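STRUCTURE:
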């Protein structure tokens, strides 16, 4: 008996969502009879669809002749209960395996070989182990700029591609500074000026909260290709999760294997970002590279090297690219983590008296650069144009329209209505002095200990910023969590370390 043997089964729908994996459950004995093991990839054929899924086995719950489908699967592929499907083991494309072996030997791949790997990852034919091998290569191998271009192109072309008419702009912050949620300010601001801004994003990897986690607080983020096209047509923009759209789907799978270590190579980041831009038909792209000693890009030499890579790859993909190297000596704003950062975004958009001026200033600076990039205005006129959209309320009005269009519950929400976690711990200064250093790596680690990204109400509030004078027993920051043991864990992790250096 060969692994390509096919058997037929009746579907049973299970109201369980895995969230990341597409899983089916098969009777263990029946699976073994067809040489299918747990964690193998299987092909389900139904209604002219060939669907590649991850197999789990059970010897009691599922009877022979049955196959259980999780909600993620039957909703995505529109498979009803009691439908007859064919099931078979699937093998990885031999060309992709040979290309992976070649990459592991650090030999250069041609475009077809790179595409074969990206296509098999996208189609769910690569196991997590094979994906991890491919991801790990780029921590050790120095890719040429041309290789980065080919990887970005292949990653995009292995998934869905959108098309929009005219100028299509975008901004992306590379490995954001904690609290640096400029995107949610810039997208409505620029869209209110008539600039087309279809924004997609992924989950945070190396920072406590990225745009994914923050937008999810206010509105839905999962939309189909057709829904996104309608959103952009109606609102001139969108704020949506790219992974749910199959835009550069290999990227989401590569992110998944990188997430446990909170690591991503510089090369992989360039590929990831530019592939998404290419798949979204972006014509004008602004890349923000935060640079500072405790940020992910620690020095100007590294930042300039990355700038050249973005410009090269963008040009090869047919984009006009502007790269801004921005200061990352400390967090932006004072609230760190999803709900808390959204509070500050709302305060800027609503021009609240307690709005964080550093967040507003950076958002306006970057918005003005996109205004320049698309040729709408230059210099001070570009900045003034962006500022007027905030001051007049036009940016907030557009955000309200986006929230409504993306099925948000409350387009009129106020910043104080965003809930905070019920437990908190005030951390106080041990001596008089001035804040000289804030370690953003420790902020990231501490926020994860407070259960980011699982608990969106937890996080940190920073009472003091760089240059602030403090006295002994002044509160320098506050931890928030919905479980006391998470605060205890964060405090334990900080023993012998200093998030704040006061001299």
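SEQUENCE:
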């Amino acid at each position: 008996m060969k692994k390509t043997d096919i058997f037929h089964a009746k579907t049973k729908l299970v109201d369980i969502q895995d969230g990341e994996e597409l899983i089916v459950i098969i009777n263990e004995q029946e699976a073994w009879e067809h040489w299918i093991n747990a964690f193998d990839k299987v092909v389900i054929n139904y209604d002219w669809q060939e669907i590649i899924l991850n197999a789990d086995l059970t010897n009691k719950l599922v009877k022979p002749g049955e196959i259980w489908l999780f909600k993620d699967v039957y909703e995505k592929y529109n498979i009803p209960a009691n439908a007859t499907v064919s099931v078979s083991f699937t093998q990885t494309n031999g060309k992709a395996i040979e290309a992976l072996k070649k990459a592991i030997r650090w030999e250069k791949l041609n475009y077809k070989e790179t595409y074969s790997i990206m296509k098999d990852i996208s189609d769910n034919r690569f196991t997590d182990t094979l994906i991890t091998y491919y991801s790990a290569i780029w921590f050790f191998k120095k890719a040429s700029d041309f290789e980065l271009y080919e990887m970005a192109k292949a990653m995009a072309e292995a998934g869905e591609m959108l098309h929009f008419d005219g100028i299509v702009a975008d901004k992306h912050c590379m490995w954001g500074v904690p609290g640096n949620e400029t995107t949610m300010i810039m997208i409505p601001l620029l869209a209110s000026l008539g600039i087309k801004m279809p924004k997609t994003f992924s989950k945070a990897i190396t920072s406590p909260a990225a745009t994914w986690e923050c937008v999810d607080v206010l509105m839905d983020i999962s939309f189909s290709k057709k829904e996104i096209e309608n959103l952009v047509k109606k609102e001139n923009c969108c704020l949506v999760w790219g992974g749910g759209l199959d835009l550069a789907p290999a990227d989401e799978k590569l992110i998944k294997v990188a997430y446990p270590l909170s690591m991503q190579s510089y090369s992989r980041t360039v590929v990831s970002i530019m592939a998404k831009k290419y798949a979204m038909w972006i014509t004008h792209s602004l890349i923000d590279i935060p640079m500072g000693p405790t940020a992910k890009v620690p020095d100007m030499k590294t930042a300039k090297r990355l700038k050249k890579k973005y410009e090269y790859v963008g040009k090869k993909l047919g984009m006009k690219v502007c790269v801004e190297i921005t200061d990352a000596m400390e967090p932006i704003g004072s609230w760190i983590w999803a709900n808390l950062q959204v509070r500050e975004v709302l305060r800027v958009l609503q021009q609240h008296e307690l709005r964080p001026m550093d967040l507003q200033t950076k958002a306006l600076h970057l918005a003005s650069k996109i205004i320049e990039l698309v040729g709408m205005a230059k210099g001070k006129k570009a900045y003034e144009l962006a500022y007027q959209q905030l001051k007049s309320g036009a940016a907030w009005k557009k955000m309200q329209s986006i929230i409504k269009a993306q099925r948000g519950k409350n387009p009129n929400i106020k910043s104080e209505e965003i809930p905070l976690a019920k437990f908190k711990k005030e951390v106080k200064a041990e001596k008089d002095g001035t804040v000289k250093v804030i370690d953003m790596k420790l902020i990231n680690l501490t926020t994860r200990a407070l259960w980011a990204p699982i608990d969106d109400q937890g996080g940190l509030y920073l009472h003091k910023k760089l240059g602030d004078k403090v006295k002994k027993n002044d509160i320098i920051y506050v931890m928030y969590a919905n479980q006391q043991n998470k605060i205890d864990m964060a405090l334990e992790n900080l023993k012998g370390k200093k998030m704040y250096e006061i001299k």
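REMARK: The chain has four domains: 6-89, 94-141, 169-243+301-405, 420-502.
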